[in-house]
Amino acid sequence: MKLSAGKVDAFIRSPDPAIQAMLIYGPDGGLIRERADALARRIVDDLDDPFRVAELDPAMLKDDPARLADEAAALAMTGGRRVVRLRPASDQQAAVIASFLADPLGDALILVEAGELPARSKLRKTFESSKIAAALPCYPDEGGNLGRIIEQTASALGLTCEPAALRYLVSTLGGDRLMTRSEIEKLALYMGDETRITLAHAEACIGDSSILTLDGIAMAAAGGDLAAVERGLARAYLEGAVAVSVLRAAMRHLQRLHLLAGAREQGDSIDHALRSMRPPLHFQIEKALSSQTRNWPSARTTRAMEIILEAERACKTTGLPAEAICSRALMRLAWAAKAARG
Questions:
Q1: Would you say 227 and 330 are in contact if contact means Cβ atoms under 8 Å apart?
Q2: pLDDT at 204 over 60
Q3: CA distances, 265 to each of 183, 216, 223 (Å)
Q4: Among 17, 210, 221, 260, which is 20 to 30 Å from 244 by CA?
Q5: Dist CA 336 CA 295 (whole Å)
């Protein structure tokens, strides 16, 4: 079964009982984990229960391909239905999973977690073509959806957001669902007895959390800061970011630079172009764009976007390490920016 991104939440609230295996995949690692945990908790109250939750990884299946079927057929010593989790999965496990789905054993719920997968992915096709399996995409929260996630998380903590604070949070957070929720929880602790989040509260507590990760990497690359790119990539991967998400953040930054270059070349002011961007930009992103635009004319920015697009394509098609491909592409941008800066 193939699910569109817009139908995933409804499916998780009321899963089809005929579905025995689910693939949760996409660039948002936090959302993948959140949705997989939510599905698992429909079967098991304690996700750390070793009798009812089996944790598998690709190396286990490589050494013992029958392990998936064995775990699915196993009975819990304490009774009740079991959950079998496989992560992080890739196309290399597609054949083992296809074999299981062709002749499933037991009644365990199989949860497979993967990163970004192209439409032609063998793993995706295996789940999308099966009548007893489903593929659930997980994409980063943006715009209105991100605003709803922030408001829902804040409301659950007894908080409300003034409009200016919400706009700031939307421009600052996003990219990883669990990180967004974690930042709002941190803000709730900072608020103490106060219940109305103001812009001052948001700026003081949340600061530039996303600036320090994916957006910060993009800004460092476009600014020619090779050391900051290297540090940012190390931190991003440590926090669970995937290479494609990093590349897409770089693409967003370059697209903004391209718009600014076009405005400048047509005689418009950079300040006016920046104020016209929607959603409103975080002040540090705005500051970086303003200072970097003179080093990124339209032609150079277009070539940079081609490099990022080629890198994303290579991550999805070549089988080479995605992190290495991403690092090489960003370093090319950083070297170009450094040379342009003189």
A1: no
A2: yes
A3: 39, 26, 20
A4: 260
A5: 9
Distance (Å, whole) CA 5 – CA 271: 36
Q: Tell me the pLDDT tens digit for each residue of 5-45.
A: 788 989 999 999 999 999 999 888 888 989 999 999 999 99
pLDDT tens-place string over residues 81-120 = 999 999 989 999 999 999 999 999 999 999 999 988 888 8
Answer yes or no: pTM beyond 0.70.
no
Compute CA distances 7 → 1, 14, 134, 286, whole Å: 12, 11, 12, 34
HEC string of the chain?
Answer: CECCHHHHHHHHHCCCCCCCEEEEECCCHHHHHHHHHHHHHCCCCCCCCCCCEEEECHHHHHHCCCHHHHHHHCCCCCCCCCEEEEEEECHHHHHHHHHHHHCCCCCCEEEEEECCCCCCCHHHHHHHCCCCEEEEECCCCCHHHHHHHHHHHHHHCCCEECHHHHHHHHHHCCCCHHHHHHHHHHHHHHHCCCCEECHHHHHHHCCCCCCCCHHHHHHHHHCCCHHHHHHHHHHHHHCCCCHHHHHHHHHHHHHHHHHHHHHHHCCCCHHHHHHHCCCCCCHHHHHHHHHHHHHCCHHHHHHHHHHHHHHHHHHHHCCCCHHHHHHHHHHHHHHHHHHHHC
- How far is it, in rounded angstroms, from Cα 81 to Cα 305? 49
Is pLDDT of 175 > 90? no
Question: Rounded CA gap, 132 and 135, in Å?
Answer: 11
d(CA 256, CA 263): 11
Q: What confidence score (pLDDT) does residue 210 get?
A: 46
Cis? peptide before 88, omega within 30° of 0: yes
